[in-house]
Design a protein that fits this description.
The protein is α+β, with helices and mostly antiparallel strands and 514 residues long. The chain is globular, with a radius of gyration of 24 Å. The protein binds flavin-adenine dinucleotide.
Length: 514
C-alpha cells in the first residue's frame, strides 16, 4: 500500500526532486538506508498570500514499488446477440454511455449529426477564416460534441452525482496524461482532446458497438407512451427498443421536434452574458501578486461570483492562455466560448461572465421556449450589430462599464474579427445592468480587473440548456415516454464534460437496474 503525505512548499521547490525526497523522508521519519519511491498524488496552488504556496500531496512506498494508480479497464467484446441501445449524439455523454453500455453487455449504436474529428476540423477552419457555418459540423456539433475543441477543463462540482474518478481514469486510459488525476483543476487542452476522442471511438467499434457520423435524428414516432421508430436524415427509418437522447444544449431542432410530438419539455434557468479577454500576463500579475507565470507556476486563472440585486453573476469557463472561439450553430447568430491548448501558452486569458436567467423573468414563464427565445434574440441582435457575419460586437471593459463606445482595441484572439459596438445598446437591460454592477464588484475583489486593455465580446450565451427534458430521477425515463432517456447537458442534467460523461454512465446503470 502506498502511504500519502501532505505538505506545502514554494512553487520553485516542487521540481527539485532531491529536496522533495528529503522532505518526505523527514516527515515520514524514513531511515537513510531505506529505499523509497514516490510520485505526485494531488496538487493545488494557493495564491491567496504574497508568498504563493503549493499544496503538495505525494504517494510514497518504502522498500517496495509504488502500487499502480489504477488498473486499465478491459472492455469486453460484445456478444453478437447483445441487446441494442440507440444513442443520439457522440458528445461526452453519448460516448461514455456507450462505453458503460459495453461494460454491461449492451451494444451501443450511436447516431451523430456531425462529422468525424478530422473532417470536422476543416469545417472549423472555414468558419473561422471564411465565416462559413455548417449547421451540422461546428464547435458544438460533431464527434466528441462540444467538448472536443474545448479547453478540456475537467473540474466538476457534481461529485455527488457519480464516479468522477472513473471518468478521469478512463480518460487517462484513452490518452490523457496522469496529471488529470493529480491536479485540483485538471484540464486536457484542445490539441490533445481529438486523439482521446478517436481512441474512445475505436474502442467502442472494436468491442462491437457502432457509430454513424452525419446521421441526424430528424423524427421519431410514438405509440402507447413509447418511441417505436426513429428517422435519420429525413429518410432512413430505424426500429428501436430504447433511445438515449444526448444531443447537447444547442440542438434546437430536437427541442422543436419534441414539442411538435407533444413530448413534454419545460423552460429551464440558464445564464447569459459576455466573454471578457485580458492578456494572460495581466491576469498573472493580478492573481500572483505582481509575479508572472513561469516554469513553476501555470498561467493564472480566476473565478468570480457576486449577487447583483438578488441575481447571481459569475465567471464561467475561464480559459487561461486561451482563444475565444466562434460557437454558433445556426444562421443569423453569433456565439462565443473559449478554449486553450494543453500548455495554455496563448497570450490571452478569457472568461465568460454571465447573469443567471429564470423563466419567471418573463411574462410567458410557462412557455417552454421562453428562455430559448431570449437566448436566440440576443445572439441575433449581436449578429446584426457586428455586420451579419461571424464577427462579434466588442467593447473595451472600461468603456462597457462607462457606457462609451470604444475607439481603440488591443488585439483580440477571436479570429473572425471584432466590431466596435456600444453593447449597452444591444444587450437587454437585464443583462447589461447586472454585468455592469458585477464588473464594478469584481474590480473591488480583484483591483485592476476593469481596464480598457480587456475586451468584452458578446454574447456568451450557450452556458447550459435553456430547456429541460424532464425525466424520472429514479430510472432516468422521460416522464411521459418510458423508453426515452434524456441525458446530460441538452436535457438539463449536466454542465460540463465530466458531469455529462457521468450522466451517460449513470443512465446505463439505471437501464440495467430498472
Ligand atoms: C468551445 C467550448 C469550450 C468548452 N470548454 C469546456 C471545458 O473546458 N470544460 C467543460 O467541462 N466543458 C466545456 N465546454 C462544455 C462542454 O463541452 C459540454 O458541457 C459537454 O460537451 C456536454 O456534453 P453532452 O454530451 O451533454 O453534449 P454535447 O457535447 O453538446 O454533444 C451533443 C452531441 O449531439 C449531437 N447532436 C445534436 N443533435 C443531434 C441530432 N439531431 N442527431 C444526431 N446527433 C445530434 C451533436 O452534434 C453533438 O455532437 C465547452 C464547450 C465549448 C463549445
Amino acid at each position: 500500500m502506498n502511504q500519502v503525505i501532505n505538505f506545502t512548499c514554494k512553487p520553485e521547490e516542487v521540481k527539485d526532486l532531491f529536496l522533495i525526497e528529503n522532505l518526505i523522508r523527514e516527515k515520514l521519519k524514513i531511515k537513510k538506508n531505506q529505499k523509497i519511491s514516490f510520485r505526485w498524488h494531488r496538487r493545488s496552488i494557493d495564491a491567496r498570500q504574497k508568498q504563493i504556496k503549493i499544496n503538495a500531496s505525494f504517494e510514497v512506498a518504502i522498500e517496495s514499488a509504488l502500487a499502480p494508480r489504477f488498473i486499465n479497464y478491459e472492455f469486453p467484446i460484445l456478444d453478437k446477440l447483445a441487446p441494442q441501445l440507440h444513442i443520439i449524439g457522440a458528445g461526452p455523454a453519448g460516448l461514455f454511455a456507450a462505453l458503460q453500455a459495453i461494460t454491461r453487455g449492451y451494444k451501443p449504436i450511436i447516431y451523430e449529426r456531425g462529422k468525424d474529428i478530422r473532417s470536422r476540423r476543416r469545417d472549423l477552419a472555414k468558419l473561422t477564416r471564411d465565416h462559413i457555418l455548417n449547421p451540422d459540423s461546428n464547435y458544438c456539433f460533431g464527434e466528441g460534441g462540444a467538448g472536443t475543441y474545448s479547453d478540456g477543463k475537467l473540474y466538476t462540482r457534481s461529485k455527488k452525482r457519480g464516479d468522477v474518478q472513473k471518468v478521469l481514469e478512463w480518460m487517462v486510459q484513452f490518452g490523457a496524461t496522469e496529471d488529470i488525476l493529480i491536479d485540483a483543476h485538471p484540464h486536457i487542452g484542445t490539441n490533445k482532446l481529438p486523439k482521446l476522442i478517436e481512441a474512445i471511438r475505436n474502442k467502442i467499434i472494436s468491442c462491437g458497438g457502432e457509430i454513424y457520423f452525419e446521421h441526424k435524428l430528424t423524427n421519431l414516432f410514438t405509440e402507447n407512451g413509447k418511441i417505436h421508430e426513429i428517422e435519420i436524415n429525413g429518410k432512413k427509418r430505424i426500429v428501436i427498443n430504447r433511445l438515449i437522447l444526448a444531443t447537447g444544449h444547442s440542438a434546437r431542432d430536437i427541442f422543436d421536434l419534441l414539442f411538435k410530438k407533444q413530448i413534454k419539455i419545460l423552460a429551464k434557468p440558464f445564464a447569459l452574458g459576455v466573454r471578457v479577454e485580458h492578456t494572460q500576463d495581466y491576469i498573472d500579475r493580478l492573481q500572483y501578486h505582481g509575479r508572472l507565470s513561469d516554469e513553476f507556476l501555470p498561467p493564472a486563472a480566476y473565478s468570480m461570483v457576486t449577487q447583483v440585486d438578488n441575481r447571481g453573476v459569475y465567471s464561467f469557463c475561464m480559459c487561461p492562455g486561451g482563444i475565444i472561439a466562434p460557437c454558433a450553430t445556426g444562421s443569423q447568430e453569433v456565439v462565443t466560448n473559449g478554449w486553450s491548448p494543453s500548455k495554455r501558452n496563448n497570450i490571452y486569458a478569457n472568461s465568460g461572465i454571465v447573469v443567471g436567467i429564470e423563466p419567471s423573468d418573463f411574462e410567458q414563464k410557462n412557455n417552454p421556449f421562453v428562455c430559448l427565445e431570449f437566448q436566440k434574440n440576443v445572439e441575433k441582435a449581436c449578429w446584426e450589430a457586428a455586420g451579419k457575419t461571424q464577427s462579434v460586437p466588442a467593447q473595451g471593459l472600461q468603456d462597457f462599464v462607462n457606457g462609451n463606445i470604444s475607439t481603440q482595441f488591443p488585439r483580440s484572439s477571436y479570429q473572425p474579427g471584432i466590431v466596435s459596438v456600444n453593447l449597452k445598446e444591444i444587450l437587454p437591460d437585464l443583462i447589461y445592468n447586472h454585468l455592469r454592477k458585477a464588473f464594478i464588484d469584481f474590480n473591488k475583489k480583484m483591483p485592476g480587473f476593469i481596464t480598457n486593455d480587456a475586451v468584452v465580446h458578446a454574447p456568451e450565451s450557450r452556458t447550459s440548456s435553456p430547456i429541460l427534458i424532464p425525466r424520472n430521477a429514479l430510472n432516468f425515463q422521460h416522464v411521459e415516454i418510458s423508453n426515452l432517456y434524456p441525458i446530460a447537458e441538452g436535457a438539463g442534467y449536466a454542465g460540463g464534460i465530466v458531469s455529462a460523461a457521468i450522466d451517460g454512465i449513470n443512465c446505463i446503470e439505471k437501464i440495467v437496474k430498472y
